[in-house]
Amino acid sequence: MRIEREKGVKAMVRRKIVLHFPHEQVDKPVVSKLVRDYNIDFNILKASITPREEGLLVLELTGEEADYKRGLEYLSSCGISIQPLSQDIRRNEERCTHCGICTAVCPTLALYIDPESMEVRFDQEECVACELCIKVCPPRAMEIQY
Amino acid sequence: MAKTIAEINEKIKKGEAVVVTAEEIIDLVEEKGAEEAARSVDVITTGTFGPMCSSGAFLNLGHAKPRMKIQRAWLNDVPAYSGIAAVDVYIGAAETAENDPLNEVFPGEFLYGGGHVIEDLVAGRKVRLRAEAYGTDCYPNRSWEKEVTLDDLAEAWLYNPRNAYQNYNVAVNLSDRVIYTYMGVLRPDLVNANYCSAGQLSPLFNDPLFRTIGIGTRIFLGGGVGYVVGHGTQHHTDVPRSSSGAPSRPAGTLAVSGELRGMDPRYITGYSMLGYGSTLAVGLGIPIPVLDIEVLKAAAVRDEDLVAPVVDYSSDYPQGTGKILGEVNYSQLKSGSIEIDGKEVDTSSLSSYPRAREIAEILKDWISQGRFLLSQAVELLPCEDREGEGGEGDG
User: Fold this and answer.
1) Where are the alpha helices (DSSP H) in chain A?
2) In contact, B363 and B287? CB cutoff 8 Å
3) Domain check: are A15 and A79 in the same one?
């Protein structure tokens, strides 16, 4: 979680979150309201709707801390469940063999090689849960947790 | 100042042998020079850990009551070859599970195959055996089902016809679509390059002309002890070489064998290659006795002196054209990017360097503690570039 302070005036936050929408919310313009009413910038990292019409949205939100809090309260009031993204992709340390082949597909360099030890490091802060590493990992050490 | 393996073994037994890894020898030679290093060092240990499809295990299942001559067998639904004696089977690393969707939903995941069966056995996990037979007078039983663990098996030997490739291709993709290969996922338009060798730690890069490694060489295999049983399949030694003798193309290979009991799933791991198949990652380490200064100089080879060919896996490899796009060295490959045709290309490895290091260290500990003696090869492996080749080859 990254918190930047701009000249000590207002605390800005930039966070990645996973939203699970109940099906009655899927067709509502929830995110645009975040921008308009709460002054929060968003970047969609992933969006999908399941066959049961429940929505999954992975967002990176940037805004002032107070606005961010109120924005999240608004989302909760719509019946949307919120999770920090970092909980989603985990590495099974027992299974990882540190080959490094996952680094070929990781788009954000969350998975990278430490040049000294040549081991694969996993920086959850940088992970956008694209899931490309899951199937590419030969011993299947990367796991999704919904 | 030439040493013999018998002399080195005497020192190992007394706990006096000087053992270093193939990484450590590089610094030592730089510091003290090759002559001094050859005098003081007795053994250099190597290591590698990567997917090696040409691997598998012979299992003797013990006899059923009544007896059975197995015609077809499955372990956790993975077919095992049973066209040998009654209850002997061979489970191959690349065998896919029955009912696996394979590549029907492309790219297939190949979550469980022969390599995973072998890992499960080594880990002590239960594996479900299913067998069928047509029945004979002496072997009347026609079907058999039970759970087995490694402890229940009469014998269980890893027998790998081709391991420890001496050098390998660097795989790239010149086409405009993603391809899924045994070298991993290759993105279109030359975006990434995948390689698969431990380079300066890799066993056969450290004894490039097979001056010490031969039939009967005792090795670290899968966390236990194994042996080189011969040259592997596709063993080609008539290849271009650097001045130190290191091949700049895939060259020699080893056939190895060792008892599964005593192995560790950390060094014998089932792999799933997306869109390709299942396989087994094998950990292998070979001790190199410093018989003379030439053996030492070859083992002191550095990543920057080891060269691999870059091959297009979208067309040249599948079509077998033999075309090579260029050459890069392992130091460049390990830096994270190489240059091909003026383009910067990201590199990733399939071979685990940290685990290769670990294996070389473990082997060094075993030898230093007197728990692992070197064996004299009964026959060296074929290599036309070795001096004196054509003689009796007793190294």
Assistant:
1) 30-38, 65-77, 132-136
2) yes
3) yes
Look up the domain containing B319 and give its range: 5-46+163-218+234-263+285-380
Same domain, A64 and A9: yes
Q: Which is it for the CA torsion B338, B344, B348, B353, positive or negative?
A: positive
Burial (CB count <10 Å: 0-12, 13-18, 19+), residue A124: middle
Beta carbons of B353 and A118 less than 8 Å apart:
yes
Amino acid B62 reads G
Tell me if A135 and B274 make a contact (CB, 8 A cut-off): yes
Q: A65-77 and A30-38 helices cross at what angle (nearest 10)?
A: 150
Contacts of B50 in chain A (CB under 8 A): 99
**CATH assignment at residue A137:** 3.30.70.20
pLDDT score for B395: 39
Domain count, chain A: 2
- How do residues B40-89 score in pLDDT, each as one tens digit? 999 999 999 999 999 999 999 999 999 999 999 999 999 999 999 999 99
Q: Does B139 reside within a domain?
A: no
One domain, residues A9 and A56: yes
CATH number, domain with residue A72: 3.30.70.260
Q: Helix and strand tally (H, E) in chain B?
A: 9, 26
Which of B194, B270, B271 faces A104 most closely, judged by CB atoms? B194
For the question of residue B196 being annotated catalytic, the response is: no
Task: Write out the residue range of the structural domain in which residue A104 sits.
Answer: 90-144
A26 and A65 together in one domain: yes
What is the pLDDT at residue A1? Answer: 36
**Reported pTM:** 0.88
Q: Give the contacts of B58 (CB within 8 A, at least 6 positions apart).
A: B88, B89, B90, B155, B156, B157, B159
| Phi, psi for B354 (deg, rounded to 5) | -60, -40
How many domains does the structure of chain B reveal? Answer: 1
The answer to whether residues A101 and A75 belong to one domain is no
- The SS3 assignment for B10 reads helix
Peptide bond preceding B66 in cis form (omega within 30 of 0): yes
Q: Is the pLDDT of residue A5 over 50?
A: no
Within a domain: residue B257? yes
From residue B13, how far is each of B21, B38, B217, B270 by CA, in Å?
19, 20, 18, 36
| Interface predicted TM-score (ipTM) | 0.95
